[in-house]
Design goal:
Chain lengths: 329, 398
């Protein structure tokens, strides 16, 4: 039996999952195919074969968890995902799915803890953030019901938490082994990083509709502007922050630009520290060539810790992308 | 923002500290706070200081032991909700009535007010003028603090032993009419204990009726009945500060602790909106004056000086359907047939009525002996001070 080396290289984790050549890999693909076709019993049988051949195959075990979930065996699925979190605590996906299963059983506190683990390992992991938000809201509603003696019955137990269907789907970029891997058999290398917007953008399951041909330079330009804007905000630089807004910026509520600026300055200067994070940005372009950047904005200051979905509409002025609209959704 | 809502509550609580209000630096004595309340207050203070995670831990462990603490559930809901969107007040629940949320907010404010209570060994409620040795316990309710203070009688003077969060009538104090959902203001006694078998789940671990309407209430035309000290239903740790139909509601745990000490028929309960705290020495003159008035009444009765004896009764006096003229006529007739009278009074309890008027309640054992009649009874008199002299406005069996 082969051992799986687990390397942490700087900020980037390299997870090397070793899969025995040929047979097992094909069986995984077949199991996955059966699963996608809805032949769960067959998929389970095939994936068991893979796992028997390589008990440490995280991808196969993850698939098994998904199959068990689809088969309506949440207890077994929980067992599978739990053992994955024990063997691969650095992977956020099993935590996420564990949370979804717990939440579906109304065990929100366990769901919360699992999601917090997912986020601890991957602070910008968008799906986990969204799920956690839902779990918090669910728990809040449960607590409120107890506070006010409301009995909403099982109607309230519905959750809209998202299960992750592929290991390495969101925060993880799957790829082939780099030649300097110290193993002789061809491994699958997954580099886990929080920094690449490309990786985060990949988390979006639905490809964004594009009205005008997507120009790689424009995507990067718009994203750079959004990142620069967040950075100026985080470094409490009001001038730099305001410079990202175009002269044609639509001030919300139609109030004068000057009073809006004063308010924004105050909001930037007042907290002792601010940390703004951008996760899972999606860039689309409208017919006017404006970039619509949707992302999840994390905001953390000495007094507030919040997150939410934000949309910035940017326009290219003299080769600079500047914000013309801003809205929280 | 949630923190600011709690800061406002904490600030309101600080100004309500009675020690500050009366400008005395009291010698603090240790105060036992029940664990659930202590944990809740700690969580609220954490929220005030923006330590949300610590607040959540406190609330969460509190709810493990007391899942029916509704206010704690509400705060937990807020702490979770605050992670999904900014919230700016306590109680952001969708659903439930505005009244329910307002009640729980009110409880949060009161719990903070209560956290500022600093009992002092130097101060006692002015109402507890004199407690006979057999009266082991006195209760004083402060409605603005939603708190029932418990005093033990150790060697003639009352000493603070505990205080409990209580719920009073929906419409506050000053009960006047049947069904007005108010709690009476006055001096009462715990008169009985209702058998558990007769109580529904609603009353929790027990029910102890008090003597509303007392003789003074009846003279002033107050009616209604069934003011009890009682507990909470099993699914409710505590009720909001103003939620009952006039009863005084304690948590079951507090009621059980208190019940073990209650003397049915003896334990007094004084109910007021805000306790008037005084130093013991400052109460002595009033106590001595009242005690001397009772003694002079006893002496004048015994000496068969009927004019002097009747001078102790106020013009407004009433007893058992008699006014002062009828009472005087009857007493003159009775006293005329006596060759000797001996009156002993013992175990005199003197309680000052809360409120503007100078009214006091004297309860004692009276041992009456004469040439043709003897009797022994518990007597209660209501005394009122008019033109600097205490006079009896009501007299009857206690």
């Amino acid at each position: 039996m082969t051992r799986i080396p687990l390397l942490a290289l700087g900020a980037t984790l390299l997870l090397v999952l070793q899969i025995p050549a040929g047979f097992a890999a094909n069986s995984y693909e077949e199991a996955s195919k059966s699963f996608k076709q809805g032949n769960f019993a067959e998929a389970l049988e095939k994936v068991e074969t893979v796992i028997t051949a390589n008990p440490r195959d995280a991808r196969a075990r993850f698939l098994k968890g998904l199959i068990l979930t689809e088969q309506g065996k949440p207890a077994d699925a929980i067992k599978e995902f739990t053992s994955l979190t024990e063997d691969y605590p650095e992977l956020p996906e099993p935590y996420n799915n564990l949370a979804v299963l717990y939440a579906s059983q109304g065990q929100y506190d366990k769901a919360r803890k699992a999601l917090e683990m997912a986020i601890r390992t991957h602070p910008s992991y968008a799906i986990a953030h969204e799920n956690l938000g839902d779990v918090y809201a669910k728990m809040a509603s449960e607590a409120y019901d107890k506070a006010l003696q409301l009995d909403r019955g099982n109607a309230a137990a519905q959750t809209k938490l998202a299960m992750i269907k592929d290991l390495f789907s969101g925060s993880v970029v799957p790829g082939r082994a780099s030649p300097d891997t110290p193993d002789t058999t061809p491994p699958v290398v997954a580099s886990i990083t929080n920094e690449k917007p490309a990786a985060a953008a990949k988390a979006a399951a639905v490809p964004a509709p594009t009205a005008v041909p997507l120009n790689k330079g424009d995507v990067e330009g718009a994203l750079a502007a959004v990142n620069g804007w967040a950075k100026a905000w985080s470094s409490k630089n009001p001038d730099g922050y305001l410079a990202f807004y175009a002269p044609s910026f639509q001030v919300p509520g139609g109030e004068p630009r000057s009073s809006w600026e004063t308010m924004r300055r105050d909001r930037i200067v007042r907290p002792k520290k601010i940390d703004v994070t951008i996760s899972s940005p999606k860039v689309t372009f409208d017919s006017a060539g404006r970039a619509i950047v949707k992302f999840r904005q994390g905001y953390k200051s000495d007094t507030l810790d919040t997150a939410g979905a934000k949309t910035l509409v940017l326009q290219k002025n003299n080769n600079h992308w500047q914000i013309v609209q801003e809205r929280m959704n | 923002m949630l923190a600011q809502a709690v800061v406002a509550i904490a600030a309101a609580a600080a100004t309500a500290s009675y020690a500050l209000a009366i400008g005395v630096a009291p010698a603090p004595i240790s105060r036992h706070v029940t664990a659930p309340e202590a944990m809740l207050v700690r969580a609220l203070l954490d929220i005030r200081d923006s330590k949300f995670s610590s607040a959540f831990d406190h609330i969460d462990s509190l709810l493990v032991s007391n899942p029916n603490f509704r206010l704690a559930q509400l705060v937990k809901g807020d702490l979770l909700m605050a992670r999904t969107r900014p919230i700016d007040s306590i109680g952001n629940a969708a659903g439930g009535t505005a009244e329910q949320v307002a009640g729980l907010r009110d409880e949060a404010r009161i719990r903070m007010v209560r956290s500022q209570i600093e009992p002092s060994s130097d101060l006692v409620p002015r109402y507890l003028l004199q407690m006979p040795a057999k009266e082991k316990l006195a209760l004083v309710l402060d409605s603005t603090k939603s708190t029932l203070f418990v005093f033990e009688n150790t060697g003639k003077t009352p000493h603070y032993v505990a205080d409990y969060y209580v719920t009073i009538g929906k419409n506050g104090l000053e009960k006047f009419r049947e069904g007005d959902k108010r709690t009476p203001v006055g001096v009462y006694h715990v008169v009985s204990q209702l058998p558990q078998a007769r109580l529904t789940e609603f009353y929790g671990s027990g029910a102890y009726p008090i003597s509303y309407p007392n003789e003074w209430d009846q003279m002033r035309g107050r009616d209604g009945h069934g003011i009890w000290l009682h507990g909470t239903p099993r699914n409710t740790y505590s009720r909001p500060p103003r939620a009952s139909d006039g009863c005084i509601v304690l948590t079951n745990q507090d009621l059980e602790t208190l019940a073990a000490k209650l003397q049915i028929g003896t334990t007094p309960i004084v109910i007021t909106d805000s306790i008037d705290w005084a130093k013991r020495d400052d109460m002595e003159a009033l106590r001595a004056d009242l005690a001397a008035s009772v003694e002079a009444w006893r002496h004048d009765w015994e000496s068969r000086n009927t004019d002097a004896y009747l001078a102790h009764y106020a013009r407004t006096f009433k007893s058992g359907g008699m006014n002062l003229a009828q009472w005087s006529a009857q007493k003159r007739q009775v006293n005329a047939g006596k060759s000797w009278i001996k009156v002993k009074v013992a175990d005199v309890s003197l309680l000052l009525y809360p409120g503007k008027e100078d009214v006091a309640v004297a309860t004692f054992e009276q041992d009456y002996d004469s040439n043709n009649l003897s009797n022994r009874m518990m007597k209660r008199q209501y005394w009122m001070r008019e033109n600097n002299r205490w006079r009896i406005v009501y007299e009857g069996a206690a």
